[in-house]
Specification:
globular; 4-stranded mixed β-sheet; single chain; alpha+beta; 605 residues; 12-stranded mixed β-sheet; 25 strands; 18 helices
């Protein structure tokens, strides 16, 4: 073998070719397997929409057959100006009308919403403040990711617009977001836990018309989402103490045994509930009276009003500061930064606020997700359907990286048998945190699960999700749009949770869980949503075909505003830096890697 054949370049090319051949061969084998299990996948799909039924559902849900929608999307950027990092974030909305007629759904032409339906900010920050504002503690120190702050700001902007837009105009009943409601809540509930318990949230101590925000208020806002008609929070596991607290808002004094009986929980939970409530009191001074009976301090039931008022006030300051820095907040006699952790918690509060408004005012928020690596449909739902005897036999699907990849590939491989539009049955977001467990002793409609991590299972009957595909070519059915996902809140009277009962052994009790599942019976609300999305995905623009045209326009608006204003706000920063009497040499103290890259670039030039 010649030296040329063993050179690093030759070896690299040979290795890449071999790896590529392996991946292509593997994918070809999966496609072959999909042809065999096409009928099994078809059992998981629901085809077409019933427009007449959608009109009847709209009348029942909205009280009218014509409502307004708003579609909200955002963008962000990060620029370096000497020692300053300049962040930009903007969220914008397009609006229109939707009329649910007996023979068709009519979607009015989207138009850019007024200036009141926009939230943007250009925020300079010095590198020395970066660790304090958006650094994350790690075992090895503080990690600083410049993308974290603009992403958190953008999420706040989008949810802030969604909530305030619905508040300002009661006819705006449909809210389209390029976000995942369930995913954002699930992530933030746990990522903000220590932040709240350590007393680091900027909202704590803010005075509102309903009183001063306490750490206990923030803990309740983080975990407690109450809806009696949906029977949430369920009296189980980590949710039991919050279900108990919701029962104490009336001012009663009850023992843990009385609370467990009132909630209909397993009596074996009494001792654990007593310990949990005492721990809450030690951490947050939550109770006026503890042991053996518990009574909340006066005003505890107004926690939500205080937290939401403070969140909206800080959001207004960030996007419409009256002088000063958008991320500096005055509290009492001091001033402090609004950090990325604060913004994450504000996102959680705003999603909760939007969900509460959905239930109280008949608003329909829909989170549309373009790309996802979730795999709960195949890894959790399908095995549980088989265990509960809702499937005649457990299908053997090829191993794809995600549900979306499986469904997308199947729609091409088995195009003739997969007409659009179609969607999977809506499933409870809680399924994502479940790991099926064998239990032959259970009967039909029953199955056993563990929590996927430390036996913790996400709250059920809050959010639902489904995969869907809207468009395929009439001349060549294998040419089709992408598979997307949407999630939305669950609604009593429109969604049901009687198809499957799950059992989870948690401590002393074998807990029953009743998640929403629309496998045997569909939901009229699902049909209405699909009828509307199908109409919004017909615009003959390659980037929007089969997705959502109003969201496409909102995205284009956000990016065009960024392009138009970027040089302007960067120029404004440069002018202020030039006018400053600060020693300019200090501002030129750049990071070494930036300095080295600049010198190397000049040398190559």
């Amino acid at each position: 073998m010649s030296d040329a054949d063993t050179s690093p370049e030759s070896r690299t090319i040979a290795e890449v070719q071999a790896s590529t051949r392996f991946l292509l061969s593997s994918f070809k084998a999966k496609m072959g397997a999909l042809k065999e299990c096409g009928p099994d996948i078809r059992n998981l799909l629901r085809f077409g929409v019933d427009v007449h039924s959608a009109a009847a559902t709209a009348k029942r849900f909205f009280g009218t057959d014509s409502v307004e929608y708003i579609a909200i999307d955002g963008t962000n950027s990060v620029d370096q100006q000497l020692d300053l990092i300049v962040f930009y974030v903007g969220a914008f909305a397009y609006s229109g009308s939707v009329t649910f007629g007996p023979s068709r759904v009519e979607v009015g032409a989207p138009k850019a919403a007024d200036l009141g339906m926009a939230a943007s900010a250009a925020i300079p920050l010095s590198e020395e403040d970066a660790a304090q504002v958006f650094g994350q503690k790690r075992e090895f120190g503080v990690e600083v990711d410049p993308e974290r702050l603009p992403n958190a700001l953008m999420h706040v902007a989008e949810y802030y617009l969604a909530y305030t837009g619905a508040e300002a105009n009661p006819s705006r009943r449909i809210i389209l977001l390029d976000r995942t409601l369930a995913g954002d809540v699930a992530h933030l509930v746990w990522s903000t836990r220590d932040f709240i318990r350590e007393g680091r949230c900027v909202l704590e101590g803010i005075d509102t018309p309903y009183g001063r925000v306490t750490s206990f208020d923030l803990e309740l806002a983080r975990m407690l989402l109450q809806n009696g008609d949906l029977a949430i929070p369920a009296p189980r596991s980590q949710l039991l103490k919050f279900a108990a607290i919701s029962s104490l808002f009336g001012g009663d004094s009850l023992t843990s045994e009385e609370l467990v009986a009132h909630l209909g929980a397993d009596p074996k939970w009494s001792e654990r509930l007593n310990d949990d409530l005492e721990e809450l009191d030690r951490r947050f001074s939550a109770f006026e009276q503890t042991g053996p009976s518990f009574r909340l301090k006066p005003g505890a039931r107004d926690y939500w009003d205080r937290v939401l008022h403070a969140t909206l006030a800080v959001s207004r300051h960030v996007f419409s500061p009256e002088g000063g820095h958008p991320l500096r907040i005055k509290k009492a006699a001091s001033e402090r930064w609004v950090t990325a952790d604060d913004l994450d918690f504000m996102v959680l509060v705003l999603v909760r606020a939007l969900t509460r408004k959905a239930w109280s005012d008949g608003v329909l928020p829909i989170g549309l997700i373009k790309d996802t690596n979730a795999f709960e449909l195949v890894n959790s739902v399908v095995p549980l359907l088989a265990s509960a005897h809702l499937l005649t036999s457990p299908p053997n699907f090829p191993n794809f990286n995600s549900d979306k990849m499986l469904l997308q590939t199947n729609s091409v491989v088995n195009a003739a048998g997969t007409p659009t539009p179609w969607h999977t049955p809506e499933i409870d977001a809680a399924f994502r945190t479940m790991a099926p467990q064998p239990d032959p002793a259970l009967g039909a409609g029953e199955a056993r699960v563990n929590g996927a991590f430390e036996n913790v299972i996400y709250p059920e009957r809050v959010y639902l999700k489904t995969y869907f595909q809207l468009w395929s070519s009439e001349s060549n059915p294998s040419v089709r749009s992408h598979v997307f996902t949407y999630d939305r809140p669950a609604y009593p009277g429109f969604d049901h949770w009687d198809e499957i009962t799950l059992f989870n052994r948690d401590g002393p009790a074998d807990v029953r869980i009743h998640p929403v599942l629309h496998f045997v019976r569909g939901s009229d609300l699902t049909n209405m949503v699909m009828a509307m999305l199908a109409e919004m995905g017909k615009e003959v623009i390659p980037e929007a075909l089969g997705h959502n045209y109003p969201l496409f326009l909102a995205d284009k608006k956000a990016k065009s505003v960024l392009e138009e204003t970027r040089q302007a706000y960067l120029g404004a920063v440069a002018i202020e830096m030039a006018k400053s009497d600060l020693d300019q040499q200090v501002l030129f103290s750049r990071r070494f890697r930036d300095y080295r890259s600049q010198i190397e670039g000049k040398r190559r030039g």
